[in-house]
Write a structure and sequence with these properties.
Blueprint lengths: L14 E4 L5 H12 L3 E6 L4 H13 L3 E6 L5 H15 L4 E4 L14 H29 L2 E6 L12 H21 L4 E8 L5 H10 L6 H6 L10 H13 L7 E4 L10 H8 L1
Parallel strand pairs: 1-2, 1-4, 2-3, 4-5, 5-6, 6-7
Helix pairs in contact: 1-2, 1-8, 3-4, 4-5
Length: 274
């Protein structure tokens, strides 16, 4: 288990709920928190149970505690039960990470109202419900940390990500407003906006959904100033920063290799679209 310079884990005796942590960024965050001493509630949809179990096993192997819950965050009762489960199992809640998201593609012409509602239910409504339930416990403790995982798409968005981008934009304002209100209870709220991260889902979307095959990654790397993709581990380090830096609240960290909103060099853009 990783320790601070003071000789104890950074998140010793802390309890965290991380949504969407059966794979990708969420799994990276859950593992990182477990590595630093937190007890973690791992959460995801039932079809990703195997990934969730692997995350729990990794946390246990690092000396931490974790258990898995699966369910649909479109269900209000399930959202609330997730917080209750953490409290029943560990007796408190210190950190809530709203990471789960639906990223289905759609333009103004192709996005159905059903798809719009699904994306908003998971990406924006669920964080609201989870925070509402978590705040009740955190207010009693007079302490707590909420970390929302947004997206670079929350500023403008790729053409085919209308609903997702709009929901992430809403999450940013939600973060700022909530932070402003909760300072009086010593509850901190911050957000990480990842850019392009290499996850299992991203590999599938690029190679299969977009039909680019196995060569897409080599083209993508040509556009990365650091010569590599961002990884879940990178975003997990950012989440750990917010979880352990008590004075910081209301901050939004744009975590990308290019400045947000800056146009790509034409050669970089060509590598992405060819």
């Amino acid at each position: 288990m990783a320790e601070s310079n003071a000789g104890k884990p950074l998140l010793a005796r802390q309890v965290a709920v991380v949504t969407g942590s059966t794979q990708g960024i969420g799994s990276g965050i859950a593992r990182k928190f477990g590595e630093h001493g937190a007890s973690v509630v791992v959460h995801g949809i039932e079809s990703q149970r195997a990934g969730g179990e692997a995350t729990v096993e990794a946390i246990a192997a690092a000396g931490g505690q974790a258990f898995l819950l699966t369910g649909d965050l479109q269900d209000e009762a399930h959202c609330r039960s997730l917080i209750h489960a953490a409290l029943e199992r560990f007796g408190r809640l210190d950190i809530l990470v709203n990471n789960a998201a639906v990223t289905h593609r759609g333009t103004i012409e192709s996005t159905s109202t059903e798809l719009w509602d699904e994306i908003f239910a998971v990406d924006l409504r669920a964080p609201f419900i989870l925070c509402q339930e978590a705040v009740r416990a955190m207010k009693e403790q007079q302490s707590g940390c909420i970390i929302n995982i947004g997206s670079s798409n929350g500023y403008f968005g790729l053409k085919g990500l209308l609903a997702y981008s709009t929901a992430k934009a809403g999450l940013l304002v939600f973060t700022k407003n909530l932070a402003n209100y909760l300072t009086q209870y010593r509850i901190r709220v911050n957000q990480v906006n990842p850019g392009w991260v290499l996850t299992e889902g991203e590999r599938y979307v690029k190679s299969v959904v977009e039909g680019r095959g196995d060569g897409w990654l080599a083209d993508a790397l040509k556009t990365r100033p650091a010569g590599r993709m961002l990884m879940p581990e990178d975003i997990a380090e950012a989440a750990l920063f917010f979880a352990t830096r008590a004075p910081v609240s209301g901050s939004v960290l744009d975590f990308e290799q290019h400045p947000m909103g800056a146009p790509l060099d034409p050669e970089d853009l060509a590598a992405l679209v060819r």
